[in-house]
Design goal:
This protein is mainly α and about 80 residues long. It has a domain at about 30-55. Helices cover about 45% and strands about 0% of the residues. It has two helices and no strands. It is flat.
Length: about 80
């Protein structure tokens, strides 16, 4: 056995495949927890369905305005040409 290695073989799959599989499983488990959170909040805590649904929504980071969105209309001169 190699020093620091796993005593069981990983069936010849690269470590990247295992990391992706663990990440996918963790993400799926989080989705399942959110589903049960809505049930808990609406049935046990007697919150409205709208409030429970808000708790289930993932947090949205603040949207940053890009330079392309900052288009300022050109100033209209007071004199007619």
């Amino acid at each position: 056995m190699k020093r620091g290695g796993s005593p069981r073989p990983r069936q010849g799959l690269p470590n990247l495949v295992w990391a992706l599989a663990v990440t996918h499983f963790t993400s799926a488990a989080g989705g399942l927890v959110r589903s049960f959170l809505v049930l808990y909040l609406t049935q046990e805590q007697r919150l409205s369905l709208a409030t429970g649904a808000e708790a289930n929504e993932p947090a949205q980071p603040e949207r940053k305005v890009t330079q392309l969105e900052l288009r300022v209309p050109e100033a209209v001169s007071g004199s007619a040409s």
